[in-house]
Specification:
Elements (H helix, E strand, L loop, with lengths): L1 H33 L4 H13 L1 H12 L4 H24 L3 E3 L2 H21 L4 E2 L1 H31 L13 H32 L3 H13 L1 H12 L3 H24 L4 E2 L2 H21 L4 E3 H18 L4
Antiparallel strand pairs: 1-4, 2-3
Length: about 325
Amino acid sequence: MELILWSIVFVVSLAALIKASDYFTEAAEKTGLHFRIPTFIVGATIVGLGTSLPELISSTLAVYSGATEIVAGNVVGSNIANIFFVLGFTALIGKRLIISYARSHADLPFLVGSALLIALAALDGSFTWPEGLLCLGGLFIYMSSIIQRSRHVESVGEIEGRPGEPEKERLGFTVILLLIISPVFIYLGARYTVEAIIRLSEILKIGKEVIAISAVSLGTSLPELSVSLTARLKGNPEIAVGNIFGSNIFNSFAVMGLPSLIKPLAIPGSILNLGLPTMIGATILYFFITQDGEITKWEGALLLIFYGFFLGKLFNLF
């Protein structure tokens, strides 16, 4: 009975966390546009961090709850799910997923670098505040790169007669209300998600990081899946792939970096022996399959097979 109760709490609180983060990000984006903040800054900061908000808030509360191993499980699991599950599923829609050479090769060093940084920093079983500062430094460099590239794109748009300044977004009562209420539900959703993870790990006698790297990471990757599939169906493959790029880089730099400033993060054996090698493998595999500028549906199926294999190994199914 207790298992069913905490399972329900987990599902409901995780859903509330994801949905409230989505509402907050949308409201924050409209607020930025209302005050005529340049669109490239809105995209690089509000939207970029918004996709990682569920992982960031739940990881921060996990540190305060003394369950620091949840943080690494969140980050590593989400990065694996984004490449193997989200990208794999997205690639299955249609014949092939075309990738912009410029976007791919501009962000690829950050994707690979962020994965290698947290993997190397975690080798000793702990992730400390100096390593967190390095991650935040990487985040600053990445965001600066995005802003510089976006400025170039918008300046080209002005030359071609397209206005660089965004249209003023109307700031209605609903937007203001969402800005006030959604953070409350984000906090409550994250708090009870972490509490449910701790209770379920005790009941099932499995590590908290195992629940975080599987169920939590899959749940928090659903918004990325929704965005990527929608973009894919609308014929915007660059958005579909860029969404996954940005989410993984923000996860590695921000979600690992910020909580480690509060308390050193424990890196359990299951993360070291299975999670991190799989994340590095997923990143390297992505590097190779995108060299021809596209991802076929067969490569997408291969990514999904790898995700199934990872979950099977995680729960000792084979």
